[in-house]
Amino acid sequence: MGLVVQKYGGSSVADAEGIKRVAKRIVEAKKNGHQVVVVVSAMGDTTDELIDLAEQVSPMPAGREFDMLLTAGERISMALLAMAIKNLGHEAQSFTGSQAGVITDSVHNKARIIDVTPGRIRTALDEGNIAIVAGFQGVSQDKKDITTLGRGGSDTTAVALAAALDAEVCEIYTDVDGVFTADPRVVKKAKKIDWISFEDMLELAASGSKVLLHRCVEYARRYNIPIHVRSSFSGLRGTWVSSEPIEQGDQKVEQAIISGVAHDTSEAKITVVGVPDKPGEAATIFRTISDAEINIDMIVQNVSAASTGLTDISFTLPKTEGRKAIDALEKNKAGIGFDSLRYDDQIGKISLVGAGMKTNPGVTASFFEALSDAGVNIELISTSEIRISVVTRADDVAEAVRAVHSAFGLDSDSDEAVVYGGTGR
Predict the structure, then answer these.
(1) Which one of 126, 260, 377, 418 has the largest count of C-beta atoms within 10 Å of its C-beta?
(2) Sign of CA dihedral 62, 64, 69, 71
(3) What's the whole-number mean pLDDT along residues 51-73?
(4) Where are the domains of the chain?
């Protein structure tokens, strides 16, 4: 049997009983003949609690020390899990991200993985041990400082280790039974997807689906590492994410026309009002945003008024970056030449994703008809070959998701989707 990388989220190791349950599952994989590498997140809401504590001590904590603090959560999980495995009669060794050879750039709080050199992990496996790795963290290549990978970084750690170790599969364990056609907390009749392509999963992840993070799927696609998303609370088969459809029994799982509906309420909208409608203005605006190291999502430019020669440009970005973006634009107001800025953080994004959309006429019309019938007003629209996204009022998001989900026949006829934990991670 080959090597398997398993990742367990915070809800799976939220308490001592959860850790012991996870240890039994890991030992079972070992007994089945696999070499096993495990990546763990911090217990339950530990990371959020550490963030709150840091903010009480300092409103603007230094990036280096903030990372040093946050990585403590995963170190607690890995040590406790190793103890639980040893209590079941199997040898386990725990490793921090730096000990596991996760090399990153120097950007604190949202570092990117540059390389993985898992020498100590291979040695542990060769000695017959189970290797437990703290997720979400690494060490910077130049300064050798501890870094964190940002929200969902444990998923990326797991896939990166799977690629470096040439694993057969990366199993992502969470508190739902797989990837669903919508968030089961919002749509009770959401269906579990048996197989989904990397491309569709990338779009869902980028559009707000929280089961897998975008960077994790991107890494898996680059190195062609199959991901199996499943629940640590049940023994059910989950969702396979890979480049090719999987075989289920004697039948190949076909790709659906529509993979799912995702939503995101973590973004805000900035409108730059009164921009001169001439070449180079948009470039100046978005160079200003880029220089502030802010990622943007959707962009819309209005038709300029003939009488004034001015236009408005709107774009969406993470709420957490809103203040920084406003400050950067205000600082360069003279260079851009706009009149004013409008900021709105009461928006939500709804996205319909499916590779079959490009060959099935009528999908776009059905999508907008569903929103219209639900009384949902649209503020921005963005499309790709396999995705349609719209921005609406935040209060309308849940109703919009349910309406679109039903309109495309995605509602399940059987049991409602089960959410075993409370966070989805």
Answers:
(1) 260
(2) positive
(3) 92
(4) 3-254
Tens-digit pLDDT profile for residues 3-47: 999 999 998 999 999 999 999 999 999 999 999 999 999 998 899
Residue position matching structure tokens 């949202």: 110
The burial class, CB within 10 Å (0-12 / 13-18 / 19+), for 365 is exposed
Q: Pick from 265, 394, 268: which is nearest to 321 by CA?
A: 268
pLDDT per residue over 283-333, tens digit each?
999 999 999 989 999 998 887 776 688 999 999 999 999 999 999 999 999
- pTM strictly above 0.90: no
Give the model's pLDDT for residue 419.
Answer: 72
Q: Are 318 and 150 in contact (CB under 8 A)?
A: no
Q: Residue 161: count other Cβ atoms within 10 Å of its Cβ.
A: 29
Proportion of the chain above pLDDT 90, given as a percent = 76
Q: List the structure tokens of 183.
A: 């968030």
Closest CA to 8 of 212, 176, 172, 230: 172
In angstroms, the CA 299 to CA 382 distance is 8
Tell me if residue 161 falls in helix, strand or coil. Answer: helix
385 closest CA partner among 350, 349, 355: 355
Q: Which residues lie closer than 8 Å to 251 by C-beta, 6 or more apart?
A: none
| CA distance linking residue 394 with residue 348, whole number of Å | 4
CA distances to 142, 161, 180 from 67, rounded to whole Å, are: 16, 21, 33
**Could you tell me if residue 166 is left (phi over 0), alpha (psi between -120 and 50 degrees) or otherwise beta?**
left
Which pLDDT belongs to residue 252?
A: 56
Q: Report which secondary-structure segment, H or E, holds 179.
A: none
Long-range contacts of 20-26 (CB under 8 A, 24+ apart): 20/84, 21/232, 21/233, 22/81, 22/84, 22/173, 22/232, 23/81, 23/84, 23/85, 23/87, 23/88, 24/88, 25/173, 25/232, 26/81, 26/85, 26/130
Give the integer Cα–Cα distance in Å for 317 and 75.
Answer: 32
One DSSP character per residue, 274-322 reads EEE-STTHHHHHHHHHHHTT-----EEEPPPPTTT-EEEEEEEEEGGGH
CATH 3.40.50.2300 fits 3-254, yes or no: no
Task: Tell the burial category of 17 from Cβ atoms under 10 Å away from its Cβ (0-12, 13-18, 19+).
Answer: exposed
